[in-house]
Design goal:
Elements lengths: L6 H4 L5 H9 L4 E6 L4 E7 L6 E7 H8 L8 H17 L6 E3 L10 H12 L13 H5 L1 H13 L1 H7 L1 H5 L7 H12 L1
Parallel strand pairs: 1-4
Antiparallel strand pairs: 1-2, 2-3
Helix pairs in contact: 4-5, 4-10, 7-8
Length: about 190
Amino acid sequence: MKKVDFRRKREGKTDYRKRLRLLLGNKPRLVINLSLKNITAQIAEYHEDGDKITASASSKEIEKKFGWKASRSNLPAAYLTGYLVGKKAIKNGLKEAILDIGLLNSVKGGKIYSALKGALDAGLNIPCSKEILPDDDSIKGKHISDYASKLSKEDNKKYEKVFSLYIKKGIKPEELPKYFEETKKKIG
């Protein structure tokens, strides 16, 4: 008789061996999920009747509550989402967690680690190597503002096409680092 795998394993949604190793640590998990347009970060604690979410934040919340008008799926948005969930977790009495990226690919300096850096800067203790975290300039969006400045001088049509979201929402991509700092201050 053939053994049938769990539905979530068959659908490629859960790696149960990895999940078991994380749960054996008996610590809350910082779970980061990425989509094409949004980033979600949650602090989940294991309970027998199902995981309980202690704190949650999304890039949509950054946009609605704190006025973030830039992309909701770039490095600065990931950092701010991680920062917000970290602040909420601290407020709920949590001090430490472990990173759970599920089946996402681990990319050094990517959005996952930008959100992790935000949670660390908010005050959560999460074990990680400092080498995987993005640098401060990337987190603030300096690479985006530099590219926008360069493109505005070289090809105005391409600039308007690439940064149409920013222009439509009334912000200058060249000022993204300043805009990032203002939003971070609003979060606390």
